Amino acid sequence: MTSKGEFAAGRGLYYSLFSRFFVFSQDADRFSGVNAMLGLASAHALNEESAAAIMRIQARFDEKNPQNLADEFDEIFHAPPSPLRNSLSYYDEGYEVGHACAKVRKILARTDLRRDEAKFKENEDNVGFVFALMSEFIAREGERELYGELEEQLFKEIINPNIDEFIEGLFNHESSEIYKDVAVLLQGFIEFERVVLSAPRPINQGENKKTLDGVSRSEAIRRQKNRVRKLKAMEEENAKK
């Protein structure tokens, strides 16, 4: 029978594994520990699909020479013309550094944890950073009840509403090969976490969530600012006459 501590350690392992896959780094050891974590995840696979995905990842990933995975990461997340966004704000509102990022920063402010900018190059709502944060909260939940509360808040308010669209984009990206199986593994784990944290899968609002009349919210705001600026200019011009 699995103890409470072992159960938490297993969940933390998965979050730590996914943070390795999604945090950008130029360090040679960016994927250090992935083989060991995949081995542990395989021994305690969540379902048959996850077990098969782990086997395929293991067959194509070499921790001593992970260049193929690093190249695939760059093709998916950095290469033009349509890199996959890994900011949860984007899936929440249609632009980056939005409310989701602000919420993560507020959660961090309740702890002694801060984003190490040397290690985490992107913002606090980056998928990899959020997963690393979940792993840390789970590791600390035995110390203070606060971390259990923050872990639940982070999942329910930030991860759960936005992660499905990210996973779908990752799975369907034309450059996804190893990451296609990472997407399968991540989807299985997210469904597991929804049960653990009593967080139902949200109703998919699709484009309606991040657009208004076919225009992204960021573009709508930009247009509104331009209209206000033009009106002020017209008023000033009329005042001179």
Automatic annotation (TrEMBL):
It comes from the Bacteria. Keywords: Chaperone. PANTHER family: CHAPERONE PROTEIN YCDY, DIMETHYL SULFOXIDE REDUCTASE CHAPERONE-RELATED. This is Formate dehydrogenase-specific chaperone.
